[in-house]
Amino acid sequence: MRLATIIILLPILLVIFPARDSTTVESLPPVVVWAWERPENLTFLDPQKAAVAFLAKTITLRDDKTVVKPRLQPLQLARDTKVIAVVRIETDHGTLSVAQLQQTAHEISSLSGVSVVQIDFDATVSERDFYRQLIQRVRQELSPSVGLSMTALASWCAGDNWIGDLPVDEAVPMLFRMGVERRQFQRRLESSQPFEVSICRNSAGVSTDEPVTVPNVNRLYIFNPQPWTKESFARALETYRR
Predict the structure, then answer these.
(1) Are 77 and 8 in contact (CB under 8 A)?
(2) In this predicted structure, what is the pLDDT of residue 14?
(3) Whether residue 173 has a cis bond before it, omega within 30° of 0
(4) Paired sense of beta strands 50-62 and 75-77, if any
(5) What does each C-alpha distance from 54 to 35, 44, 109, 117, 186 come to in angstroms?
(6) pLDDT value at position 21?
(7) What is the pLDDT of residue 23?
C-alpha cells in the first residue's frame, strides 16, 4: 500500500490514503501493532513485517444516543505500512435500538481508504443479539473487498461459542486483561490446546505488560499500554519470539 504519513490537524483528523489496494486479512504481516488514542510515531516499523491497527473512532451507545468520537491524536506511519481501522464500541445504559444499530453500522462501514476494519466490543450476554445484528449489517454494507475483523474475549473462542457463524474474516482472542480466567487460559495455552471456534485460530491478541504463552497463529496483535518506541517493539518481538 502506498501510504503517506497520517497527518493530524486538531481537532480534525485528516488521513491521507491512496486508492484502496488489494490488502486482505490473510495478506497482513505476521505482527500487527495496536495504536490506541494517543500520539504515536511508528515510522520505525518495517512495513513488510508489521502492520498497524489504529483506533479510528470510538462509538458510545448512551441511553438512546449514538455518540461518535473520531481519533484526535497524531499517528505517524512509514510509507507502505498496511493499516487496519479499529472501531471501539462502548455502552452506557444504551437502549440498543434499531436507530443505534443503523447509525453504528453506518459509522463503521463508511470508513474510507482502508482495506480492513476491526470492531472492538466487549459485549455482555444481553448485548450479544445487538452485536450479532451489527456485524451482519456491517458486512452487508461494507464493500466485498474490505476485510472484517473483530476482537473476542478468550471465553468466546472456547466453550462459550456464540461467534462461530459470524461473517467475519477473523476473531482475535484477547489473551490479556482476562481477570479471573487468566490462570485457566494460561494452562490451556501452555498445553497447546486450540480454541474450539475456527475463526479464533489464525490470530491472537497479547499485551507487552502481561506475557503469556502464544498459540501457534499466523498473526499476532500486540497492545502496549505505553506509547510505542523502537526499543519497546523490539522487546515485544523478543518476548513473543516473533
Answers:
(1) no
(2) 39
(3) no
(4) unpaired
(5) 5, 16, 16, 10, 27
(6) 46
(7) 63
Q: Which residue has the cell 499485551?
A: 207
219 contact partners, CB below 8 Å, separation of at least 6: 28, 29, 30, 31, 32, 170, 202, 203, 204
SS (H, E, C) the chain: CCCCCCEEECCEEECCCCCCCCCCCCCCCCEEEEECCCCEEECCCCCCCEEEEEEEEEEEEECCEEEEEECCCCEEECCCCCEEEEEEEEEECCCCCHHHHHHHHHHHHCCCCCCEEEEECCCCHHHHHHHHHHHHHHHHHCCCCCEEEEEEEHHHHCCCCCCCCCCCCEEEEECCCCHHHHHHHHHHHHCCCCCCCHHHCCEEEEECCCCCCCCCCCEEEEECCCCCCHHHHHHHHHHCCC
C-alpha cell at 117: 476494519
C-beta separation of 109 from 141 below 8 A:
yes
Instruction: Retrieve residue 103's grid coordinates.
Output: 447509525
Which stretches in the chain have pLDDT values below 50?
A: 1-22
- Contact at 8 Å (CB) between 198 and 170? no
| Contact (Cβ atoms closer than 8 angstroms) between residue 43 and residue 230 | no
Rounded CA gap, 21 and 35, in Å?
A: 21
pTM listed for this prediction? 0.89
Cell of 237: 518481538
pLDDT value, residue 193 = 80
The answer to whether residues 77 and 46 touch, using CB atoms and an 8 Å cutoff, is: no
